[in-house]
Amino acid sequence: MSAWNAVAKLDPFKTRIDEEVSSPPPPDQEWRFADEGGTAWVFHAEGRQHLARPVILSDGFHGGPTVLNDAIHNLEFAGYPFLSELRREGYDLIILGYQDCTASILDNARAATACVKKAIAERRGEAKLAVGGFSMGGIITRYALAAMEHAEDDHQTGTYVSYDSPHHGAWLPVAVQAFAHWVAEKFEGADGFSKLVDSPAARQLLEYHIAAFGEVPRVDPLRREFLAKLTEVGSWPKGPRKIGVANGTGDGMPNGVPPGEKALITSPPDLITLYTQESGAGRLVANVFGEEQRTDDLPMADGAPGGLLDFFRQLAQAVNDINLGISAEAVYPWTSFVPSISAMAAKTDKPWDNENLYGELANLASEFDDFKFADIDERHTDVTEDLCTWIIKELGEA
Q1: How far apart are CA 281 and CA 259, in angstroms?
Q2: Predicted structure pTM score
Q3: What pLDDT, on a 0 to 100 scale, did the predictor assign at position 363?
Q4: Buried/exposed 272-286: b ≥16 CB within 10 Å, e otherwise
Q5: Measured between alpha carbons, how far is 166 from 133 in angstroms, rounded to an integer?
Q6: Nearest residue to 108 via CA among 192, 35, 14
Q7: What percent of the chain has pLDDT over 90?
């Protein structure tokens, strides 16, 4: 196995758990959708032993399958006890997961559809469902509900919930993609991170994608195909009230990452240098042992307000773990992953123009009926008291 396997094992999209959840609450039921590649875990409301007010929340993008312990950690122990608070308010939480969270959104939407139908069948009473998800989970459920409506299949959903979902696409720095592919191309068996970047779901989610070092960034054909399929089913579910939150701010203020600056450096110097994205022609974003990746006219998305991920920090740590006499430092550890304009589903044809990425979003209309921004730019899908109490309040008004 190559020494560069530390890079190959990276999964910056996965919730990191510093310690195991010692006593995770057990689900009351487990539903398996073997043919559709999904599993749902049901947590009944406090004091109730049956399903009455279902809230389905879908997992998002990361490598491998959904791990219940990870999902519980994020929902209960990472910042705000969202699971407990939903149950205390009388809601039955259904965590929807997948056998492969890198599979096509269209494929995993089949599991979401099966979960909605199962919840309807198991529910006692006539309370409308709430259906949505975190990150890509909000896109999966958006498509599933819209497709059910298009097929005249009653989803009985009163509220659609989006939690920092990339409705106009997500941003993975081209520098990071390029480095992942460089490692895969140079070292046999060190292609895990590259494969994650090239997975069907990543290609459908990312606004700009490369499949090889030095390639020209583009909107991947799989993304174009998915957007066409979404349009075919009406783009959005029309029946439910649509609410959403962003882990980014809406004031247009940069998150502190300037364009065109060194984001990752090494000692000895100049062995690996990765740069933040700058607009314009021929912009250098990666120099890896003398090989260059350049871009033309891409948005300055690294510094845009939005939900953040620590791509450069994790890359630097992986390089340090290689133990080949190279030390790396992330000058700018965190960058935008889901710009706020994408999470809010702004009604604009040019969400990735710099003036819109960094614009005052209160001036733009949204596809949502109600929407809330975070007070500061936070880690993507961080479960915070501010956002979660707002969601619970909105569910109560449905």
Answers
A1: 14
A2: 0.97
A3: 82
A4: bbbbbbbbeeebebb
A5: 11
A6: 35
A7: 90
